[in-house]
């Protein structure tokens, strides 16, 4: 066996360099390995401690700056304090010992606090939570459970006949087990919380993060801003998270830079890692330096934001970076426009930055390139290629296949006709990742990896050009890359772009053509309406030959001299290699836009995708290759062959690994959904496929009408039919791709069948006040069974801001070149969540717009009543759904732009809260208006012939089925379906909006009924004798004035005088005494006036005839005419009795608890020594009696009784019972007082592991201020 072993590992396939010529280039020019070139890596952050990222090949620091531009690492440091005897009190309350080695001439320190989980990526948080549970929580928890279980078992053995006291004791022991079980079930670790200190040492600002959590600053690292000293530290040996800092605004803002994922370190390592002892592991440009800019916001799960991108480009320009690698991107609705795209374009055109970006991973369908890499001019978009060497080394395939594009690599063209993918590069690598992953390296793939491979290759070229003094510009470099790229015949142009990057040839091209006059010129192409190419796809575009006016405009770099513009003149030979495009043969171009006409004749082209270019060659030097290009794409769809069943079938289609079969189908007019069936034939094995179907709607991203599904077909097996919506009349791309790494050939059959049930409007809305909505639906293609349904799933609550402000942002971070200041509109919204449920905030005016948005950024943060950040979101609301508990919430929204007047326009912007309904609401549907009006027979299944119209009647939602608390400005959303077929129901859906009307007004009780709660209840009969006595207006006025004064009693410090005044006239008016009780019970000095509280409560209880009240509730039924009014007043009396009894019991319990504390301190001075001397003698027996009497009226588990039940437990020193009740109260509304009380009880029970756990949670749940944007 050993003789067949191959020990020569193909390391060249782990981080591919040979395919692009980078390997041979470095061998030929060893000193041009990226030296003198700075690459800005805009990503999730780069770990400065990761392998290969410490030094360059010539000994310079590899990472010259680390910046977090997202704001997620910011710490507010505006609190300034002075040390006392070398000790600071941090915002966590910990004592921080200042090391004697620190030099702080002013003696003033900025302090702040930051949670570790605000800095760590989710993957690390999950690992630490698991470790915390296994190492810290579980062992101690098991001991506590064992102890509690034994105590209960021993009690049961010793007590067989239980007295009332024993029952309480047993309940206490069981409560401890219940509390422990509940704590374990809800275990959640919040991570460590660190004090942060910033001060000025006389030379620079410095910061220290107390990673010991003990105030031992001597053991912590003192850091300056990373750019100054290139220093970093590690938070802990468990997390292994490396961090650095930056300090802004005179010490008032500390930026702690950590990674929000492993992605950025991997990208940086591909581009420029350097391993002096293992050169095979080097990145593409080991001599290049890196500026690590974190644009992946931790609050959004590492999503990029407009804020981060603008700040990043400010830093790129400021630090004079040569290259940007951007392995991020999103789908966009339109190409090459928007605030962010303009900022990126400015960096390229005015500051000479070469911007390289991933094209996207949304393939294999066409027109799936992402923004900005595939859709934005001036940016080099890179596709992902996999070579045979990569297949063997990185992926361990048993068979080597020909080089190909990855299946998922996005394809062009863009919707405005540009090619989309400029070049391709290897899209996978095994290289370094952050230390916190506990790995040295790992395999990642994607256009995220092809982009840094290409970027590193460009760095090699720039390194040589700089060293040799050869002039270049972003446009000349892009032209050189495209004209020297290696074409691969087996890979389509839409995926490969102009070819696989060839570093050595690009360098030679730039050297040879260094002095050409177009060297600093970008040629702008406009084929009409701002389109950068011609893209014919839809049926109406293909019916005849079309003429287009092409405008070419030279765009000079910002540094071009005026004489250069005057002298510029080029004569071009225009060429196109296809007969279906006609163009002029020549063009003379000077410093102005010139136009020419071209003709595209799609007639006679075979079905499928056709691509060509009009290439412009310099007549003086045609060997330079095309100077500019006009891309032209024509898609020829087929018509559906079976026009009875409207089905298209393909039989026995052979697939090899990586094969892609595209069928473009002209979707029949009226079709609304389709079903695809695939069957594997003639195969000895299963096969993995990617099914991708897509239609393009103008000015909508490709995801709007897209279906994508990974399928595994078994031998001679059928896949489950796949259904999806379609738009009639638009061309559908039906793509099936065999996964590139799925070995073996396979034959499959597949077909697609179209269906059509179409309402007159695709967006259906109904106002509740309409009562009945008629919807006409038509069967468009063939016989279809119809069974309509409407399902409402979401309640939408519009919010308007309660306040707004427009801020001028920090000049250090948010000032564009030429002192263009960025401003921020910050609006505040509040809302009440009435019950637990899922909520999705949506700033709908700006939703689903990022790169193409006219505004720079939109970021919202949602806080609870304690100012704890619950969740955040940005441009894509559907990604940020959060489950909220009952309570009050505050949402803060920030929108940014450099033009203040644009922000003023949005000061009243609305936010929509989408509340997911706990139970969806189905509307009732009828076949006729009469049936809908009378609530008759519901709609039954009907079979509609093609062309038949069927009216459908939708009835309004009954008021009793509406969610509680809805108002007329709310609406509900859901879907309406028409097909009876279950697959059709899932795919052929229409948005349905249900606008709510005012709720019915409840009838008010007659004002002729005297209030039964005016005094004591003598009897039911006597109290009902006065119900028909009419009140005069003067009496009503006097009573209203009385009631107003009563409501104000608890708010006034002078309430006793108001009480004395009213008592003279209304001595028997019960609400007056209830208000007095509330005023006494809510005073700050309550503990010193417990006797008065007890007396007031007893007075209220004494004024209520409990026997009559019991008699009323004992009645089987009340048939009197005023029964409703009597019930209302009786319920008020009962509520007052329960309230007074609870307050009485609480006051009695507080007296006993204070006495117990006094006894336990044994003579120590106490602040409230007057409690026992000013209150009646109260014992635990009084508390027991009050609670027992209360149980006549309300269950002890009722939330109204919780305050007394908790105190009752404490009176008996039953800490488990008290904890159990506290937990119930905390579930409704968590407060710091409740949590502190719980911690004290954990201490009394000896549960130290709970104490430590929840003391940390206190710091997270109750921040001093709202989080910074």
TrEMBL record:
Domain Tripeptidyl-peptidase II first Ig-like residue range list: 521-635
Domain of life: Eukaryota
Coiled coil regions in record: 152-183
Residues covered by the Tripeptidyl peptidase II C-terminal domain: 1028-1086
Low complexity composition-biased segments: 1006-1029
Catalytic activity: Release of an N-terminal tripeptide from a polypeptide
GO molecular function, one term: serine-type endopeptidase activity
Residue ranges annotated for the Peptidase S8/S53 domain, each copy included: 34-499
Pfam families noted in UniProt: Peptidase_S8 (PF00082), TPPII (PF12580), TPPII_C (PF12583), TPPII_GBD (PF21316), TPPII_Ig-like-1 (PF21223)
GO biological process: proteolysis
Enzyme class: hydrolase
SUPFAM superfamilies for this protein: Subtilisin-like
Entry annotated with the keyword Transport: no
UniProt EC number: 3.4.14.10
Residue intervals of the Tripeptidyl peptidase II second Ig-like domain: 779-966
Location of the region described as Disordered in the Swiss-Prot/TrEMBL record: 1001-1032, 1157-1178
Descriptive protein name: Tripeptidyl-peptidase 2
Residues annotated as the enzyme's active site: 43 (charge relay system), 263 (charge relay system), 448 (charge relay system)
Family classification: Belongs to the peptidase S8 family.
This protein's GO CC annotations: cytosol
Key words, A-Z: Aminopeptidase, Coiled coil, Hydrolase, Protease, Serine protease
Location of the Tripeptidyl-peptidase II galactose-binding domain: 655-744
């Amino acid at each position: 066996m050993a003789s067949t072993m191959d020990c020569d590992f193909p390391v060249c396939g782990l981080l591919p360099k040979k395919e692009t010529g980078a390997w041979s280039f470095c061998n030929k020019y060893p000193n041009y390995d990226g030296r003198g070139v700075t690459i800005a890596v805009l990503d999730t952050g780069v770990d400065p401690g990761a392998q290969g990222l410490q030094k360059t090949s010539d000994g310079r620091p590899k990472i010259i700056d680390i910046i977090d531009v997202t704001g997620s690492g910011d710490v507010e440091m505006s609190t300034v304090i002075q040390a006392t005897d070398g000790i600071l009190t941090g915002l966590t309350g910990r004592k921080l010992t200042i090391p004697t080695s620190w030099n702080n001439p002013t003696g003033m320190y900025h302090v702040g606090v930051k949670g570790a989980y605000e800095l760590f990526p989710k993957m690390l948080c999950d690992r630490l939570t698991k470790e915390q549970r296994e190492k810290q929580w579980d062992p101690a928890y098991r001991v506590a459970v064992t102890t509690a279980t034994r105590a209960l078992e021993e009690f049961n053995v010793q007590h067989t006949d239980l007295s009332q006291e024993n029952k309480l004791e047993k309940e206490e022991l069981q409560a401890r087990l219940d509390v422990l079980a509940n704590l374990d079930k809800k275990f959640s670790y919040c991570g460590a919380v660190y004090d942060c200190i910033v001060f000025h040492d006389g030379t620079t600002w410095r910061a220290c993060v107390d990673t010991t959590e003990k105030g031992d600053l001597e053991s912590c690292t003192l850091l300056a801003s990373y750019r100054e000293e290139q220093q970093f530290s590690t938070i802990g040996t468990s997390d292994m998270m490396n961090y650095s800092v930056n300090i802004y605004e005179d010490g008032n803002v500390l930026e702690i830079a950590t990674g929000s994922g492993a992605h950025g370190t991997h990208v940086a390592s591909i581009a420029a890692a350097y391993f002096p002892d293992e050169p095979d592991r080097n990145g593409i440009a080991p001599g290049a330096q890196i500026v690590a800019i974190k644009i992946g916001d931790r609050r959004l799960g590492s999503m990029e934001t407009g804020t981060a991108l603008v700040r990043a480009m400010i830093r790129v320009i400021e630090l004079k970076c040569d290259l940007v690698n951007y392995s991020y991107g999103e789908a966009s609705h339109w190409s090459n426009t928007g605030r962010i795209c303009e900022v990126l374009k400015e960096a390229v055109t005015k500051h000479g930055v070469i911007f390289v970006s991933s094209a996207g991973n949304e393939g294999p369908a066409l027109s799936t390139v992402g923004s900005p890499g595939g859709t934005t001019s001036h940016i080099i978009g890179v596709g992902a290629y996999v070579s045979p060497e990569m297949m063997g080394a990185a992926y361990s395939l048993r068979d080597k296949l020909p080089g190909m594009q990855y299946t998922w690599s996005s394809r062009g063209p863009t919707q405005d006709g540009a090619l989309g993918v400029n070049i391709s590069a290897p899209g996978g690598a095994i290289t370094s990742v952050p230390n916190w992953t506990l790995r040295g390296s790992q395999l990642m793939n994607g256009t995220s990896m092809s982009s840094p491979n290409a970027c590193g290759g460009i760095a090699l070229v720039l390194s040589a050009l700089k060293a040799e003094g050869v002039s270049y510009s972003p446009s000349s470099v892009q032209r050189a890359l495209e004209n020297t790229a290696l074409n691969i015949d087996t890979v389509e142009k839409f995926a490969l772009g102009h070819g696989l990057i060839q570093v050595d040839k690009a360098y030679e091209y730039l050297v040879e053509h260094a002095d050409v006059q177009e060297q600093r010129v970008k040629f702008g192409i406009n084929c009409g309406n701002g389109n950068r190419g011609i893209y014919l796809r839809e049926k109406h575009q293909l019916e005849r030959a079309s003429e287009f006016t092409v405008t070419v405009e030279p765009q000079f770099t910002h540094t071009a001299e005026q004489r250069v513009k005057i002298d510029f003149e080029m004569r071009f030979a225009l060429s196109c290699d296809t007969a279906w495009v006609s163009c002029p043969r020549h063009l003379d171009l000077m410093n102005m836009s010139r136009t020419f006409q071209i003709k595209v004749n799609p007639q006679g082209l075979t079905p499928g995708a056709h691509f060509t270019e009009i290439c412009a060659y310099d007549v003086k030097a045609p060997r330079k290759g095309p100077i500019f290009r006009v891309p032209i794409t024509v898609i020829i769809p087929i018509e559906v062959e079976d026009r009875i069943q409207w089905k298209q079938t393909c039989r026995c289609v052979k697939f090899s690994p990586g094969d892609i079969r595209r069928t473009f189908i002209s979707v029949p007019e009226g079709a609304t959904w389709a079903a695809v069936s695939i069957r594997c034939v003639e195969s000895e094995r299963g096969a993995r496929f990617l099914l991708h179907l897509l239609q393009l709607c103008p000015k909508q991203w490709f995801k709007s009408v897209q279906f994508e599904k990974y399928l595994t077909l078994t031998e001679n097996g059928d896949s489950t039919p796949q259904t999806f919506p379609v738009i009639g009349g638009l061309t559908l791309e039906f793509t099936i791709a065999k996964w590139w790494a799925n070995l073996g050939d396979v034959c499959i059959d597949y077909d697609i069948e179209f269906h059509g049930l179409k309402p007159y409007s695709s967006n259906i809305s109904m106002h509740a006040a309409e009562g009945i909505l008629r919807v006409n639906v038509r069967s468009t293609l063939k016989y279809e069974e119809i069974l309509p349904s409407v399902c409402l799933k979401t309640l939408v609550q519009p919010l308007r801001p309660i306040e707004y402000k427009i801020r001028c942002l920090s000049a250090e971070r948010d000032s564009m070149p030429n002192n263009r200041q960025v401003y921020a509109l910050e609006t505040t919204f509040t809302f009440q969540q009435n019950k637990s449920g899922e909520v999705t905030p949506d700033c709908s005016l700006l939703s689903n717009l990022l790169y193409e948005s006219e505004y720079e950024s939109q970021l919202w943060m949602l806080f609870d009543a304690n100012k704890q950040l619950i969740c955040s979101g940005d441009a894509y609301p559907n990604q940020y759904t959060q489950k909220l508990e009952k309570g009050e919430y505050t949402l803060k929204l920030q929108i940014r732009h450099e033009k203040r007047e644009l922000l003023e326009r949005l000061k009243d912007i609305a936010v929509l809260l989408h509340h997911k309904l706990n139970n969806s609401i189905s509307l009732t549907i009828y076949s006729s208006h009469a049936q809908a009006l009378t609530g008759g027979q519901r709609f039954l299944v009907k079979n509609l012939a093609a062309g038949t119209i069927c009216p459908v009647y939708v009835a309004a939602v009954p008021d009793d089925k509406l969610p509680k608390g809805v108002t007329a400005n709310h609406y509900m959303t859901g879907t309406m379906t028409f097909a009876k077929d279950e697959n059709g129901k899932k795919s052929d859906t229409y948005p349905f909006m249900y606008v709510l009307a005012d709720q019915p007004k409840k009838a008010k009780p007659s004002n002729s009924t005297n209030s039964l709660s005016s005094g004591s209840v003598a009897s039911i009969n006597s109290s009902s004798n006065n119900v028909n006595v009419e009140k005069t207006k003067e009496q009503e006025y006097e009573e209203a004035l009385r009631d107003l004064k009563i409501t104000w009693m608890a708010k006034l410090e002078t309430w006793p005088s108001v009480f004395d005044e009213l008592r003279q006239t209304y001595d028997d008016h019960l609400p007056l005494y209830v208000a007095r009780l509330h005023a006494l019970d809510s005073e700050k000095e309550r503990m010193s006036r417990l006797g008065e509280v007890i007396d007031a409560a007893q007075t209220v209880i004494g004024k209520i005839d409990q026997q009559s009240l019991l008699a009323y509730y004992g009645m089987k039924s009340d048939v009197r005419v005023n029964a409703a009014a009597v019930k209302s007043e009786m319920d008020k009396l009962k509520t007052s009795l329960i309230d007074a009894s609870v307050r009485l019991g609480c006051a009695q319990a507080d007296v006993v608890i204070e006495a117990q504390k006094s006894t336990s301190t044994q003579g120590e001075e106490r602040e409230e020594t007057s409690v026992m001397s000013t209150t009646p003698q109260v014992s635990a027996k009084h508390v027991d009696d009050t609670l027992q009497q209360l149980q006549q009226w309300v269950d002890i588990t009722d939330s109204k009784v919780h305050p007394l039940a908790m105190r009752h437990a404490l009176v008996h020193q039953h800490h488990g019972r008290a904890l159990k009740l506290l937990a119930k109260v905390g579930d409704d509304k968590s407060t710091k007082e409740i949590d502190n009380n719980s911690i004290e009880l954990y201490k009394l029970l000896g549960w130290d592991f709970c104490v430590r756990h929840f003391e940390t949670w206190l710091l997270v749940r109750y921040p001093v201020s709202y989080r910074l944007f």
